[in-house]
Amino acid sequence: MKVYVTPEEYESAAEIGVSKRNVYDRINRQYWDKERAISTPLIDRSRGSKKSIS
Question: CA–CA separation, 32 vs 30, rounded Å?
Answer without folding.
Answer: 6
